[in-house]
Every structure is written in C-alpha cells, then in structure tokens.
Amino acid sequence: MFSNCMKKLFTLNYLNKTITFIILFFIVFSHCDAQNALKKNISFFGSSVCKGVGAADNKGYAWLLKYNNVIDSTQFNYFNVSTGGYNTIKIEKFNRLATNLYPTNPDIVVLGLSLGNEGIRIPFDEDGREKILEQYRSQLLILADSLDKQGVKPIIVNCYPHLFFNEDHYRFTKRMNRIINTWNYPSVNVLGSIDDGLGKWAEGYSNDPWHPNFKGHLEMSYAFVPSLFEAIFLGKKTPNYDWSPSYYSLSNTHNESKSLCFSVEKTMHSFSLSFKFMTSENGIIAGYSMNNFDNDIKVDGYYIKYSTISIPFDKKSKDWTHIVLTHNYANETTSLFVNGKLAGFVKEKLSPNEIYIGGIASIDIKDLMLHRSSINAEEVKDLFNHKMLQSSLEFYNPFTKPVIGKLLTNLAQSLSTFTINKNIEVKHVLVNY
After folding, report:
1. Which of 32-36, 107-111, 356-360 holds the top average pLDDT?
2. Helix (H, G, I), strand (E, B), or coil: what is residue 239?
3. Strands across the sheet with 419-420, in order?
4. DSSP 161
C-alpha cells in the first residue's frame, strides 16, 4: 500500500514537473517569438557577391554587417536570399521575388546586383553597352520602385569591379553609379572601397575575377554607413542638394586646434571629406586624426597644402573654394581635389578615428559632407557642380539654417554628427536668393 502511494506521488511529481517545463518552454518560446515579431527584417537580395561568394563559408559583406553589429540583432532579423549568377532579367524570369524574397517578409531589401552579370562585357560596341546599361538601369529602378510601393525600403549596392573590365566597362560602371546617386533610394558606394582606379579589384583583395576575397568583402562592408538601417526606420529621407547661398562663419578667438569634430564610431577605411570655404587667414582648415597624430589640410601663405601636395590659393578671392580629400584604403591612395580638379595624391593607408574642420582663426564654410567611401574624379566634378552624391553619405549639412546647440544637424541618412567646440563662435550668415 505504502509502495503504491509512493509510486503515485512520484508519478504525480513527474507529471507536474513535466507540465511546468512545457509551460515554461512555451512561455519562453512565445516571448522569443514576440520579440522577433517586433524586430524589422533586413533581406539581402542579389547575386553571388551579395551572397558572400569569395569569402570562406560565404561570410561576405552582408554577413559581416551582421557580425560587426551594423545590423543590430536586437532590432533586426537578418536574411540573405541571394542567388549566384542572377541579374535583373533572371530575377523576373524565374520569379525570385515570390520564391526567394517575399517569404522573408522584408522591411528593408538590400539589392546587390552587378553590371558584370547583366552582360556589360559581352557587347563589343558602344551601342551594345548602352543597351545593357539601359536594361540594368530600367529594371533595377522598376524593382526598387515596386518594393517601395509595397512599403519595403530598398537600399541599392552600387556596381563594383571585375578583374576583366577594360576602360569601357569601367566607364559604364562609374556612369551607372552616378545615375544611382540621382535616385531617391539610399545606396552604397562599394566601388570606391575596392577599386584599383581602373575598374578592377584592388591587388590582394580578389578571390577570382568575379569575386572579392574576405579582405575585399570586409572593405565593401565598411562602405555601409553604420547607422543607415536605424536612420531609415526613424524616417530620415535621402537628402537633396540645398541651393541656398547662406553659410556659417566660424570664429576661433581661443586658438582651438579643431573647430568642428566628427568622432568615427565604427572602423572607417576609405572615406571622402568635402566642403567649400572662404578665408584670408593662414592655418588649418580641415583634417583627420589617426594613431594620436593629426593630418591637416591648411592654408600656408598663398598655397593650400596637404602632406606633399601644394597648390596655389588666391586669398583675396571672394569666391568659394571647393575641397575634396578622398582616400582609397585598398588602393592606398589619398587624393586632394580643389575646385573639381586633382591637385595631387599621396600613397598612404588610413583609418581615421576623428575628422575635423580645423583651427584657423576665421573661416566661412558651407556644404560639409563626409562619405564612407572614396569618390572618383567624375564624382568630385559632380560635387563641384552642386550634384548630390548620396551613396555612402554619412554626414551632410549645407550650413544654410541657423545652428541650434553644439551639434550640427545631419541631413544624411545617418545618426552621426559633428560637434562644435565650445570655444568656437558659429554665426549663421543669411543670404537671400
């Protein structure tokens, strides 16, 4: 009798524990499921480079964004439904939207296609290449528009190198990227992170003619603005150029070494700093810090200087001078452009931790931009001609609105900002137009 009672008690305890475990399991599972339901879904949808081919285990630039917490796992779910060899025509022909993309229920879609897969190397004449370019342009824009109309936010990864590209292929690649920069969708300038200057993969960064290796994928991942995904969901739009002639006038009466400072949050390799200025003073106008050392762009007498580069500068001019300092990490080259023209370049490999507008006594400034990629000569000319380059744009302020507080407003799809040194006086100069 006692033995039977003990058996019943044991069985009852076992059942209670089992039931409790099942209840706890479903509570935890439901909680995790509810948490995932609150997250936004980011889906990468492209061809083999977007899939990660060239890196071990396909851990390419998309995976690296997740691994390096650019895609914050507490806010976003990550999917990669890319297919090797695909182009804009195959996506439509094989209905990959329905079979691959839509099952991920995306909130953001990163479109990672290429002119190489589109067939830009096949035609031997200009007309043939024009047709391929138009096919890619029109189909990619239709795809982005279609997603946008469904409430899905598209991000476009710009065209990238190929080991067998010649001068014509490179020219069309750069042209297509400039077209993408005119669209009202965020985009990523991966070409400027991995380009050798001739349309091919930079030496040491390719796995084969078609794909980057892990180092190449890593450089491409650095071209993504780290806070891009968060900024999109906060409602920040793709910026347009502000044509107002108003500007800021900075007064540095305390001889501060840096007037406006940008602290680099995540690793930055390739980058481009651009702005317009007027001054009659000598001193530092901009620069960057790396390894506790400052590298300056400065006015010295009647010259603008950076490193070994020196170019004449008319201090008495009442016109704006346009500066672009652009660095290609993989190609180990920093170039200085003044008023749309190349002033010179130096061979170096940079990874700045701070970027600043400098310690000159007084300076008028406008149209401050910072890109997380290098830009080429044609894109520099676009900036000089007041065209917007939104690909990989981390910061943009035209300085046309009054300043509020000690943080500069950022109009780019980014949460980054420049800080105003507390001893710097910033005056908004209103110019009617």
Report:
1. 107-111
2. coil
3. 309-312, 303-306, 293-300, 283-290, 354-358, 258-263, 419-420
4. -
Per 3-state DSSP, the chain is made up of helix, strand and coil in percentages (nearest 5) of 30, 30, 40
Quote the CA–CA distance of 241 and 247 in Å, as a whole number. Answer: 14
**157 has which bridge partners?**
188
CA proximity to 344, closest of 378, 370, 366, 312: 312
CA distance 113 to 30: 37
Whole-angstrom distance, CA of residue 157 vs CA of residue 112: 5
Beta carbons of 288 and 334 less than 8 angstroms apart: no
d(C-alpha 80, C-alpha 50), whole Å: 8
Check: CB of residue 179 under 8 Å from CB of residue 139.
no
In this prediction, residue 5 carries a pLDDT of 46
CA–CA gap between residue 296 and residue 39 (Å, rounded): 43
CA distance 76 to 245: 40
Q: How many CB atoms lie within 10 A of CB 320?
A: 17
> C-alpha distances in angstroms, 51 versus 7, 55, 133, 330?
58, 10, 23, 21
Residue written as token pair 């590298």: 295
Question: Given pLDDT bands bounded at 50, 70 and 90, which one contains residue 89?
Answer: very high
Torsion of Cα atoms, 9 then 12 then 18 then 22, to 10°: -150
Q: Is 232 helix (H, G, I), strand (E, B) or coil?
A: helix
Measured between alpha carbons, how far is residue 67 from residues 61, 70, 311, 431 in Å? 10, 8, 43, 47
Helices (runs of H) and strands (runs of E) counted in the chain: 12, 20
Amino acid, res. 334: T
Could you tell me the two tokens for 417?
């900002």
Q: How much is the pTM?
A: 0.89
